[in-house]
Amino acid sequence: MAAYTLLRRIAKPRIYPSQLLHSTTTRCYFTTSINPKTIATPPFRARSLASQADSVSLFNEMIVGNQRKYYMLGGKGGVGKTSCAASLAVKFANSGHPTIVVSTDPAHSLSDSFDQDLTGGMLVPIQGPSSPLFGLEINPEKTREDLRSASEANGGAGVKDAINSMGLGMVADQLGDLKLGELLDTPPPGFDEAIAISTVLQFVESPEYSKFTRIVFDTAPTGHTLRLLSLPDFMDTSIGKIMKLKSKISSATSAIKSMFGKEQTPLVDGGTTNKLEQLREQMGKVRDLFHDSEAMEFVIVTIPTVMAVRESSRLHASLKKENVPVHRVIVNQVLPPSATDCKFCSIRRKDQMRALDMIRKDPELAGLVVTEAPLFDVEIRGIPALQFMGEMVWK
C-alpha cells in the first residue's frame, strides 16, 4: 500500500525505515515512515510517496482578507472532524492569521489532537505556528451552573413557591410549563454547544482578542449540530416568555401586597433578569452568525462510505434550510489509487470510489467543492503532524 511520510529538515533529509506489519490472512502491508522520536520536533515538510487523488480545496479563498471569519467543521461521528479542524487552524496560523480553535463537542478530543492540555475554559497558547494560535475546550457545565445559581436565587423554584403561597396556583402552573429549571438541569442536545459559541463570542468581542481573524469550531456529531441550528430561535422565544411572565408576576404580587399593607420586596432578582437577557442577546448573535455568508462557513467532513455520504447529504439539506453557508465538503480517509496491492485494499478502494461517485451525483452535495484527504498511515497528533495534514488537505 502506498504511504505518506514526513521528512525532518536537517542537513540532509532522512527517511526512516518503514515498519512493516504483515497480515498473513489478507496479505496486506501497512507502512509507517515516521520516527516517533522526532515527531514532536518541528519543522517538517510533507512528501507524498504515492499519487494523490485529484482534489480542489481552494484554500486561498479562505485566507483572503483580514476581516474576522468563522469556520465550523461538522459531520458524522468518527470521520475526523477534530483532526481537520486542528489542521485548518494550524494552516491559518502559518498563513499569517491569528487564530482560535474551539471544541464545542462535549466529548472533547482537541487536547489530544494538539497533544496539549486545552481544558479549563480559557484560551491556551499553542506553540509552533508562525502566527498566534490559541485553543479552547469549553466547559458548558460551569456556565450552566452559573446560570442555574442565578435563576434559583429568587427566580425559578423560588418564584413558583412564592406565587403558590399567595394562592395564585394557575400562574405558578404556567411558570412550570416554561420548564426553566428543566432546561438548565437537563438541557436539550445542542444547548451546551450554543453556550460554548456564546462564550467564544464574548472572547472575540473583547478588545484584547480583537487581533484574531480566524475562528475554527470543532463541533459535535451531526445530530447535535442540527439541533443547535434551531436552538437560538427556541431560546429567544422561551427566554422572552420567561421575562414577560416574570414582569407580570412582579406587578401582580406588588399590587396584592399593597392591598394588605405588606412590605414590597422584589420577587425577582435583577441579576437573574440581566443574565437571562444577556443569554438571549448571545443566542441572537449565534443565530445571526449562522446566516452571515460573509463571516461564516460550515465545512462538512465525511468519509467515503455510503452511510456517511447519506448523512452528509441530510446535513447539507438541513443547513441549506436554515440558510447556513456551505461551500465545501472534506472527504477524509481516502485510499490512494495505487492501493491495489492486496485484495482487501482493492475492495476498500472500489467501495470508496462508489461512495465518491455518490457525492458527485447527490443533489445536495454535487454543487459543493469536494476535497479528498488521504488515509494516513500514522496517527495525526501534535503540531508537526497537523502541519503535515494541513499541507495535504488545505491547499
Automatic annotation (TrEMBL):
Pfam families: ArsA_ATPase (PF02374). SUPFAM superfamilies: P-loop containing nucleoside triphosphate hydrolases. It comes from the Eukaryota. GO terms for molecular function: ATP binding; ATP hydrolysis activity. InterPro entries: ArsA/GET3_ATPase-like, ATPase_ArsA/GET3, P-loop_NTPase. The keyword ATP-binding applies. GO terms for cellular component: GET complex. Residues 69-392 form the ArsA/GET3 Anion-transporting ATPase-like domain. CDD domains: ArsA. Keywords: ATP-binding, Hydrolase, Nucleotide-binding, Transit peptide. GO terms for biological process: tail-anchored membrane protein insertion into ER membrane. It catalyses: ATP + H2O = ADP + phosphate + H(+). The keyword Secreted does not apply. Belongs to the arsA ATPase family. PANTHER family: ARSENICAL PUMP-DRIVING ATPASE ARSENITE-TRANSLOCATING ATPASE (PTHR10803), ARSENICAL PUMP-DRIVING ATPASE-LIKE PROTEIN (PTHR10803:SF17). This is ArsA/GET3 Anion-transporting ATPase-like domain-containing protein. It comes from Centaurea solstitialis (yellow star-thistle). The lineage of its organism: Eukaryota, Viridiplantae, Streptophyta, Embryophyta, Tracheophyta.
